Predict the 3D structure of the following.
Amino acid sequence: MNEGSGESDVGTERDTSADGPIRIVGFFVEQSAYQMVANWAACQGHELALIVTTPGPAHTDYDGHTAIVAAAPRSQDVLVTTTPKRAAAAIAAYRPDIVLSYTFPYRLPAAILAIPRLGAVNLHPSPLPRGRGPNPHRLLYDGAPTLGATLHRTTSGFDAGPILSRFEAPWPADADLTVAAVNAAWDGLLLRALDEGMAGVIAGEPGTPQADADVSYVASFTPEEHRLDWTWPVETLVRRTVALNLVEPRALATIGGAKVTVRSVQPLRGPAPTLSRPGTILARMASGFAIAVGDGAVEVETVPSDAVAVVPDHIVESVIRIVAD
């Protein structure tokens, strides 16, 4: 197993002349995941023979499969299914060397795991065995000190197979903690884990078993956890807003009695404001509001439709007078 955070040769060509290019069947539900693997495979001279994607179970709101279908070249075979087990025969017809899943929401059945010549692997965005489960974004939400990425062999247990590569790094510094910065840092680690781990798969490495004592689980966010609390400190509000919004804006809050979707929260720039009751609107800004919070104030950007009509001007003006007094 390769483990670390140093430089790698990701993106450089690797000699595959010994056994020739490998054939991969990839399972994805997010376009960015598909694109990362497709670009890597093309760079390495391997073939992404089939993409398997899904709209997910009826109770979910996945729509990434439509973006994957739209982004894939016309020559790319794509299979859309809500029942992977029924697709086993179709997948076997592609004679894959490796089955690779990344962001796919279903457990792959034994009938599929038995198909590839070199085995099935999963790319997981956490430093396993910490962070098993469907919501690695919870690591940031809960204040874990690092982000990570792991490529592991796929077994019957979720995220439980032997580790082939694992990378870990600190989150971006507080001043740079944004959705874009976190996604960029995470993508870099995931690409390193993919590159190093797939080399191990091709070489026949079995991987290193995960330590049961270190296992932790990251559950999906509850509806209550999507709601921001203005009594929280600035650091907590920034961190949790980023964690909730890594895929799309899902952070919710109440401003001036109205419920809004929050795009971003950042420390209020400029002189420290007069301490006010948490939730007090200090000012209307170009794309949102300045809000008093538990230990200071923040700039809150709401989605455009919410920013236009969330709070009448006379309410903001009266608040400004009270704060000024």
The two ends are 63 Å apart (CA to CA). Residues 5-18, 317-325 have pLDDT under 50 and may be disordered. The longest strand covers residues 258-267. Residues 191 and 325 are 54 Å apart (CA to CA).
